[in-house]
Amino acid sequence: MPVGALLAQTGASIPAPTGNLQIFWFLLIGILWIGYFFLEGFDFGVGILLPFLGHDDLDRRVLINTIGPVWDGNEVWLLVAGGATFAAFPRWYAILFSGFYLPLLLILLALIVRGVAFEFRGKNQLPLWRATWDRVIFWGSLLPALLWGVAFADFVGGVPLGRGGHFVAGFWHLLTPYALLGGVTFLALVILHGATFLSLRTDGEMAERTRRAARRIAPVTLAAVVAFLSWTFVNATHAHDKGIVPGFVPILAIVVVGAAGWLVSEKLDGWAFIATGVGFVLVVSTLLLNLYPRVLVSSVAPRFDLTIANTASAHYTLVVMTIVAAIFTPFVLIYQGWSYWVFRQRVRRPGSPPTTASPGPA
Q: 11: phi > 0 → left, psi -120 to 50 → alpha, else beta; which?
Protein backbone atom coordinates (compact mmCIF):
# COMPACT_ATOMS: atom_id res chain seq x y z
CA MET A 1 0.00 0.00 0.00
CA PRO A 2 1.38 3.48 -0.81
CA VAL A 3 2.62 5.41 2.20
CA GLY A 4 0.27 8.30 1.44
CA ALA A 5 -2.81 6.02 1.49
CA LEU A 6 -1.68 4.42 4.72
CA LEU A 7 -1.31 7.79 6.39
CA ALA A 8 -4.73 8.84 5.13
CA GLN A 9 -6.38 5.73 6.62
CA THR A 10 -4.75 6.27 10.00
CA GLY A 11 -5.76 9.92 10.05
CA ALA A 12 -2.18 11.14 10.16
CA SER A 13 -1.39 14.47 8.59
CA ILE A 14 0.49 14.44 5.31
CA PRO A 15 3.50 16.79 5.36
CA ALA A 16 4.03 19.10 2.44
CA PRO A 17 6.96 18.23 0.21
CA THR A 18 10.09 20.27 0.80
CA GLY A 19 13.52 20.43 -0.80
CA ASN A 20 15.35 19.53 2.40
CA LEU A 21 15.32 15.79 1.75
CA GLN A 22 16.44 16.34 -1.83
CA ILE A 23 19.45 18.25 -0.54
CA PHE A 24 20.08 15.58 2.10
CA TRP A 25 20.07 12.78 -0.46
CA PHE A 26 22.31 14.66 -2.87
CA LEU A 27 24.71 15.14 0.03
CA LEU A 28 24.47 11.51 1.10
CA ILE A 29 24.99 10.20 -2.44
CA GLY A 30 28.00 12.50 -2.71
CA ILE A 31 29.40 11.04 0.52
CA LEU A 32 28.86 7.52 -0.81
CA TRP A 33 30.80 8.35 -3.98
CA ILE A 34 33.57 9.98 -1.95
CA GLY A 35 33.78 6.89 0.26
CA TYR A 36 33.89 4.69 -2.82
CA PHE A 37 36.77 6.58 -4.39
CA PHE A 38 38.70 6.74 -1.11
CA LEU A 39 38.41 2.99 -0.51
CA GLU A 40 38.17 1.48 -3.98
CA GLY A 41 40.75 3.99 -5.17
CA PHE A 42 43.64 2.34 -3.35
CA ASP A 43 42.75 -1.19 -4.41
CA PHE A 44 42.43 0.01 -8.01
CA GLY A 45 45.91 1.45 -7.53
CA VAL A 46 47.24 -1.84 -6.22
CA GLY A 47 45.82 -3.65 -9.25
CA ILE A 48 47.42 -1.16 -11.65
CA LEU A 49 50.79 -1.38 -9.88
CA LEU A 50 50.70 -5.19 -9.79
CA PRO A 51 52.80 -5.85 -12.94
CA PHE A 52 55.28 -3.06 -12.12
CA LEU A 53 55.99 -3.82 -8.46
CA GLY A 54 55.54 -7.59 -8.58
CA HIS A 55 58.85 -8.95 -9.86
CA ASP A 56 57.75 -12.57 -9.46
CA ASP A 57 54.68 -14.57 -8.55
CA LEU A 58 55.34 -14.36 -4.81
CA ASP A 59 55.65 -10.58 -4.98
CA ARG A 60 52.34 -10.35 -6.81
CA ARG A 61 50.74 -12.65 -4.25
CA VAL A 62 51.91 -10.30 -1.47
CA LEU A 63 50.44 -7.30 -3.30
CA ILE A 64 47.10 -9.00 -3.83
CA ASN A 65 47.01 -10.13 -0.20
CA THR A 66 47.08 -6.49 0.96
CA ILE A 67 43.63 -5.92 -0.56
CA GLY A 68 42.32 -9.49 -0.53
CA PRO A 69 40.19 -9.11 2.62
CA VAL A 70 38.70 -5.71 1.69
CA TRP A 71 38.38 -5.17 -2.07
CA ASP A 72 34.89 -6.68 -2.33
CA GLY A 73 33.68 -4.71 0.70
CA ASN A 74 34.91 -1.51 -0.95
CA GLU A 75 32.66 -2.15 -3.94
CA VAL A 76 29.63 -2.08 -1.65
CA TRP A 77 29.93 1.70 -1.64
CA LEU A 78 29.39 1.74 -5.41
CA LEU A 79 26.35 -0.51 -5.14
CA VAL A 80 24.82 1.63 -2.42
CA ALA A 81 25.57 4.86 -4.32
CA GLY A 82 23.91 3.44 -7.44
CA GLY A 83 20.92 2.11 -5.50
CA ALA A 84 20.47 5.40 -3.65
CA THR A 85 20.57 7.32 -6.93
CA PHE A 86 17.97 4.99 -8.45
CA ALA A 87 15.62 5.45 -5.48
CA ALA A 88 16.17 9.14 -4.66
CA PHE A 89 16.68 10.58 -8.15
CA PRO A 90 15.22 8.07 -10.63
CA ARG A 91 15.19 10.47 -13.58
CA TRP A 92 18.87 11.25 -13.06
CA TYR A 93 19.58 7.52 -12.89
CA ALA A 94 17.61 6.77 -16.05
CA ILE A 95 19.13 9.55 -18.15
CA LEU A 96 22.61 8.82 -16.81
CA PHE A 97 22.44 5.15 -17.77
CA SER A 98 21.02 6.07 -21.15
CA GLY A 99 23.61 8.64 -22.16
CA PHE A 100 26.58 6.94 -20.47
CA TYR A 101 25.51 3.44 -21.42
CA LEU A 102 28.74 2.34 -23.11
CA PRO A 103 31.24 3.66 -20.52
CA LEU A 104 29.12 2.34 -17.63
CA LEU A 105 28.86 -1.04 -19.36
CA LEU A 106 32.65 -1.11 -19.77
CA ILE A 107 33.09 -0.24 -16.10
CA LEU A 108 30.67 -2.98 -15.07
CA LEU A 109 32.37 -5.60 -17.24
CA ALA A 110 35.80 -4.56 -15.94
CA LEU A 111 34.65 -4.87 -12.32
CA ILE A 112 33.12 -8.29 -13.00
CA VAL A 113 36.20 -9.79 -14.63
CA ARG A 114 38.43 -8.17 -12.00
CA GLY A 115 36.49 -9.88 -9.22
CA VAL A 116 36.67 -13.18 -11.08
CA ALA A 117 40.43 -12.74 -11.49
CA PHE A 118 41.00 -12.35 -7.76
CA GLU A 119 39.15 -15.62 -7.14
CA PHE A 120 40.51 -17.65 -10.06
CA ARG A 121 44.16 -16.61 -9.95
CA GLY A 122 45.07 -19.06 -7.19
CA LYS A 123 43.14 -22.02 -8.61
CA ASN A 124 46.07 -23.18 -10.73
CA GLN A 125 49.86 -23.03 -10.31
CA LEU A 126 50.64 -22.76 -14.04
CA PRO A 127 52.58 -19.52 -14.78
CA LEU A 128 50.49 -18.78 -17.88
CA TRP A 129 47.27 -19.14 -15.89
CA ARG A 130 48.39 -16.70 -13.21
CA ALA A 131 49.91 -14.26 -15.70
CA THR A 132 46.62 -14.13 -17.59
CA TRP A 133 44.60 -13.29 -14.50
CA ASP A 134 47.21 -10.75 -13.40
CA ARG A 135 46.65 -8.93 -16.70
CA VAL A 136 42.90 -9.05 -16.10
CA ILE A 137 43.40 -7.49 -12.65
CA PHE A 138 45.53 -4.75 -14.20
CA TRP A 139 43.05 -3.80 -16.93
CA GLY A 140 40.07 -4.37 -14.63
CA SER A 141 41.56 -1.77 -12.29
CA LEU A 142 42.82 0.74 -14.84
CA LEU A 143 39.71 1.00 -17.00
CA PRO A 144 37.21 1.89 -14.23
CA ALA A 145 39.61 4.40 -12.67
CA LEU A 146 40.01 6.18 -16.01
CA LEU A 147 36.35 6.06 -17.02
CA TRP A 148 35.03 7.22 -13.64
CA GLY A 149 37.22 10.31 -13.97
CA VAL A 150 35.90 10.96 -17.47
CA ALA A 151 32.30 10.53 -16.30
CA PHE A 152 32.54 12.83 -13.27
CA ALA A 153 34.29 15.48 -15.34
CA ASP A 154 31.47 15.22 -17.88
CA PHE A 155 28.85 15.68 -15.14
CA VAL A 156 30.33 19.10 -14.39
CA GLY A 157 31.78 20.07 -17.77
CA GLY A 158 28.53 19.37 -19.58
CA VAL A 159 27.10 16.74 -21.90
CA PRO A 160 24.93 17.13 -25.05
CA LEU A 161 21.64 16.93 -23.16
CA GLY A 162 18.58 18.32 -24.93
CA ARG A 163 14.88 18.71 -24.26
CA GLY A 164 13.32 15.96 -22.14
CA GLY A 165 16.70 14.67 -21.01
CA HIS A 166 17.56 13.19 -24.41
CA PHE A 167 21.19 13.02 -25.49
CA VAL A 168 21.60 14.74 -28.83
CA ALA A 169 25.06 13.31 -29.60
CA GLY A 170 26.88 10.01 -29.33
CA PHE A 171 29.52 8.43 -27.12
CA TRP A 172 32.50 10.21 -28.66
CA HIS A 173 31.10 13.59 -27.67
CA LEU A 174 31.61 12.57 -24.03
CA LEU A 175 35.38 12.41 -24.61
CA THR A 176 36.07 16.12 -24.46
CA PRO A 177 39.57 17.38 -23.58
CA TYR A 178 38.34 18.39 -20.11
CA ALA A 179 36.77 14.98 -19.52
CA LEU A 180 39.92 13.19 -20.67
CA LEU A 181 41.99 15.31 -18.30
CA GLY A 182 39.59 14.30 -15.54
CA GLY A 183 40.15 10.66 -16.43
CA VAL A 184 43.93 11.08 -16.34
CA THR A 185 43.70 12.91 -13.01
CA PHE A 186 41.59 10.20 -11.41
CA LEU A 187 43.95 7.56 -12.78
CA ALA A 188 47.01 9.32 -11.38
CA LEU A 189 45.32 9.79 -8.00
CA VAL A 190 44.38 6.11 -7.92
CA ILE A 191 47.95 5.00 -8.63
CA LEU A 192 49.44 7.31 -6.00
CA HIS A 193 46.78 6.29 -3.48
CA GLY A 194 47.54 2.63 -4.16
CA ALA A 195 51.28 3.18 -3.79
CA THR A 196 50.90 4.90 -0.41
CA PHE A 197 48.55 2.13 0.72
CA LEU A 198 51.13 -0.49 -0.22
CA SER A 199 53.88 1.38 1.61
CA LEU A 200 51.64 1.22 4.67
CA ARG A 201 50.63 -2.43 4.29
CA THR A 202 53.85 -4.10 3.10
CA ASP A 203 57.26 -4.56 4.68
CA GLY A 204 60.88 -5.12 3.76
CA GLU A 205 62.01 -4.61 0.16
CA MET A 206 58.45 -4.44 -1.13
CA ALA A 207 57.71 -1.42 1.07
CA GLU A 208 60.83 0.35 -0.20
CA ARG A 209 59.81 -0.47 -3.77
CA THR A 210 56.36 1.04 -3.27
CA ARG A 211 57.82 4.18 -1.72
CA ARG A 212 60.04 4.68 -4.75
CA ALA A 213 57.01 4.25 -7.00
CA ALA A 214 55.04 6.77 -4.93
CA ARG A 215 57.84 9.33 -5.13
CA ARG A 216 57.92 8.98 -8.93
CA ILE A 217 54.18 9.28 -9.47
CA ALA A 218 53.64 12.10 -6.93
CA PRO A 219 54.87 14.99 -9.17
CA VAL A 220 52.84 13.70 -12.13
CA THR A 221 49.74 13.42 -9.95
CA LEU A 222 50.24 16.91 -8.55
CA ALA A 223 50.58 18.37 -12.05
CA ALA A 224 47.39 16.60 -13.18
CA VAL A 225 45.44 17.79 -10.12
CA VAL A 226 46.60 21.40 -10.57
CA ALA A 227 45.69 21.38 -14.26
CA PHE A 228 42.31 19.72 -13.74
CA LEU A 229 41.20 21.91 -10.81
CA SER A 230 42.39 25.04 -12.62
CA TRP A 231 40.35 24.08 -15.70
CA THR A 232 37.38 23.34 -13.43
CA PHE A 233 37.67 26.83 -11.96
CA VAL A 234 37.84 28.39 -15.44
CA ASN A 235 34.75 26.44 -16.53
CA ALA A 236 32.85 27.51 -13.40
CA THR A 237 33.82 31.15 -13.93
CA HIS A 238 32.74 31.02 -17.58
CA ALA A 239 29.39 29.56 -16.51
CA HIS A 240 28.98 32.29 -13.87
CA ASP A 241 29.25 29.72 -11.08
CA LYS A 242 32.28 31.34 -9.46
CA GLY A 243 31.96 31.29 -5.70
CA ILE A 244 29.95 28.06 -5.44
CA VAL A 245 33.03 26.13 -4.32
CA PRO A 246 34.82 27.56 -1.27
CA GLY A 247 38.30 28.48 -2.44
CA PHE A 248 40.04 26.47 0.25
CA VAL A 249 38.66 23.15 -1.07
CA PRO A 250 40.62 22.91 -4.35
CA ILE A 251 43.60 24.72 -2.84
CA LEU A 252 43.74 22.26 0.05
CA ALA A 253 43.45 19.40 -2.46
CA ILE A 254 46.57 20.65 -4.22
CA VAL A 255 48.43 21.13 -0.94
CA VAL A 256 47.75 17.66 0.46
CA VAL A 257 48.51 15.90 -2.83
CA GLY A 258 51.76 17.87 -3.02
CA ALA A 259 52.63 16.85 0.54
CA ALA A 260 52.13 13.14 -0.15
CA GLY A 261 55.46 12.71 -1.95
CA TRP A 262 57.38 14.31 0.90
CA LEU A 263 55.57 12.20 3.50
CA VAL A 264 56.49 9.05 1.60
CA SER A 265 60.15 10.15 1.45
CA GLU A 266 60.11 10.59 5.22
CA LYS A 267 58.59 7.10 5.59
CA LEU A 268 55.53 8.57 7.26
CA ASP A 269 53.44 5.91 5.59
CA GLY A 270 50.20 6.44 7.49
CA TRP A 271 50.23 10.19 6.95
CA ALA A 272 51.09 9.73 3.27
CA PHE A 273 48.11 7.43 2.80
CA ILE A 274 45.83 9.90 4.57
CA ALA A 275 47.17 12.72 2.38
CA THR A 276 46.43 10.92 -0.89
CA GLY A 277 43.02 9.85 0.40
CA VAL A 278 42.10 13.35 1.55
CA GLY A 279 43.37 14.76 -1.75
CA PHE A 280 41.08 12.40 -3.64
CA VAL A 281 38.17 13.35 -1.38
CA LEU A 282 38.76 17.05 -1.96
CA VAL A 283 39.02 16.68 -5.75
CA VAL A 284 35.70 14.81 -5.88
CA SER A 285 34.16 17.30 -3.43
CA THR A 286 35.19 20.16 -5.71
CA LEU A 287 33.33 18.55 -8.59
CA LEU A 288 30.22 17.85 -6.52
CA LEU A 289 30.15 21.37 -5.09
CA ASN A 290 30.44 22.77 -8.61
CA LEU A 291 27.63 20.49 -9.71
CA TYR A 292 25.07 21.37 -6.98
CA PRO A 293 22.12 21.94 -7.27
CA ARG A 294 22.43 20.30 -10.66
CA VAL A 295 23.11 16.61 -11.10
CA LEU A 296 23.98 16.74 -14.80
CA VAL A 297 24.97 19.82 -16.77
CA SER A 298 23.75 20.29 -20.32
CA SER A 299 26.24 21.69 -22.82
CA VAL A 300 23.33 22.58 -25.12
CA ALA A 301 21.54 25.12 -22.89
CA PRO A 302 21.26 25.70 -19.12
CA ARG A 303 17.49 25.18 -19.25
CA PHE A 304 18.11 21.51 -20.05
CA ASP A 305 20.24 20.93 -16.93
CA LEU A 306 19.11 18.15 -14.62
CA THR A 307 18.74 19.32 -11.02
CA ILE A 308 17.88 17.73 -7.71
CA ALA A 309 14.44 19.31 -7.99
CA ASN A 310 13.44 17.98 -11.41
CA THR A 311 14.87 14.47 -10.94
CA ALA A 312 13.91 13.63 -7.34
CA SER A 313 11.48 10.97 -6.15
CA ALA A 314 8.28 11.76 -4.28
CA HIS A 315 8.59 13.18 -0.79
CA TYR A 316 7.36 9.99 0.88
CA THR A 317 9.89 7.87 -0.93
CA LEU A 318 12.64 10.10 0.38
CA VAL A 319 11.20 9.93 3.90
CA VAL A 320 11.16 6.11 3.91
CA MET A 321 14.66 5.99 2.44
CA THR A 322 15.95 8.35 5.11
CA ILE A 323 14.54 6.16 7.90
CA VAL A 324 16.08 3.02 6.37
CA ALA A 325 19.44 4.75 5.89
CA ALA A 326 19.44 6.00 9.49
CA ILE A 327 18.88 2.45 10.77
CA PHE A 328 21.28 0.43 8.62
CA THR A 329 24.16 2.80 7.75
CA PRO A 330 25.80 2.63 11.21
CA PHE A 331 25.91 -1.17 11.05
CA VAL A 332 27.65 -1.09 7.65
CA LEU A 333 30.21 1.45 8.86
CA ILE A 334 30.93 -0.49 12.04
CA TYR A 335 31.36 -3.77 10.19
CA GLN A 336 33.68 -2.33 7.55
CA GLY A 337 35.72 -0.48 10.17
CA TRP A 338 36.07 -3.71 12.14
CA SER A 339 37.28 -5.61 9.05
CA TYR A 340 40.00 -3.01 8.39
CA TRP A 341 41.07 -3.20 12.02
CA VAL A 342 41.34 -6.99 11.93
CA PHE A 343 43.48 -6.96 8.76
CA ARG A 344 45.64 -3.96 9.69
CA GLN A 345 48.99 -5.77 9.93
CA ARG A 346 51.67 -5.40 7.27
CA VAL A 347 52.00 -8.18 4.70
CA ARG A 348 55.57 -9.41 4.38
CA ARG A 349 57.17 -11.60 1.74
CA PRO A 350 58.32 -14.81 3.45
CA GLY A 351 62.00 -14.57 4.39
CA SER A 352 62.32 -10.81 3.82
CA PRO A 353 63.75 -8.65 6.65
CA PRO A 354 61.44 -6.04 8.20
CA THR A 355 61.97 -2.38 7.44
CA THR A 356 61.73 0.53 9.84
CA ALA A 357 59.04 3.08 9.07
CA SER A 358 56.86 5.47 10.94
CA PRO A 359 53.29 4.22 10.43
CA GLY A 360 51.77 7.62 11.00
CA PRO A 361 48.60 8.06 13.01
CA ALA A 362 47.50 5.11 15.11
A: left
